[in-house]
Amino acid sequence: MVKETQPAEHDLVEQVQTGSRSAFDRLVTPLVPQLLTLARRMLGSASEAEDAVQSALASVWVARAKLDPERPPVAFLTTVTLNKCRDALRRRKAARFFGFAGNDFDLDLAADEPDAGVIAADRQALERVQQAMERLPVRLREALVLVSMEGMSQREAAEVLGVTEKAVETRVYRARARLREKFDGF
């Protein structure tokens, strides 16, 4: 059951819909700690949580017309924040899949920017991986992306692709084998 918003919240949401930045600040400021806690629990990283919440708030501001004055804004903000967390998790998963990220996300680094040589090498490596994936047959690439990068189960991927779970398992195995073969010693 969705509870209705309080009168003050109702008025703030209407002001936000008309473009009042100060009303937006008054509406979201009390909710930020709750959103940060949610994002930290989802991502396990304070800095990534802050980025996710900031991105969520920016998205809500841009899509402020979607706010419903009759519903609590916390539900909409929570949904958007969860979506931003899912995006971050997908990016993290893709980075791990391609070998560009470790497991520690809150490490203090000596410098804010990576060395230019590291950036260039990472870009070249990513380009090679992207090219190798583009060369995979579509049926192998689809299965690999759905299972390994989109986080679908083999059953879900099978439903999407209209094949059996065993076919998805085989396609993912073959795609990974081709990529491993291509990047052996990489």
Helix-strand sequence: HHHHHHHHH
- CATH architecture title of the largest domain: Orthogonal Bundle
Biggest sheet record = none
Structural class computed from helices and strand pairing: mainly alpha
Average predicted confidence as pLDDT: 80
For the record, what is the CATH homologous superfamily label of the largest domain? RNA polymerase sigma factor, region 2, helix turn helix motif
Alpha-carbon distance between the termini?
Answer: 54 Å
Radius of gyration: 21 Å
Task: Write the topology of this structure.
Elements: H1 7-17, H2 21-28, H3 32-43, H4 46-62, H5 73-97, H6 116-135, H7 138-149, H8 154-161, H9 165-182
Helix pairs in contact: 1-2, 3-4, 3-5, 4-5, 7-8, 7-9, 8-9
List keywords for this structure.
2 domains, elongated, mainly alpha, 0% strand, 9 helices, 186 residues, sigma factor activity, Rna Polymerase Sigma Factor, Chain: A, RNA_pol_sigma_r3/r4-like, Arc Repressor Mutant, subunit A
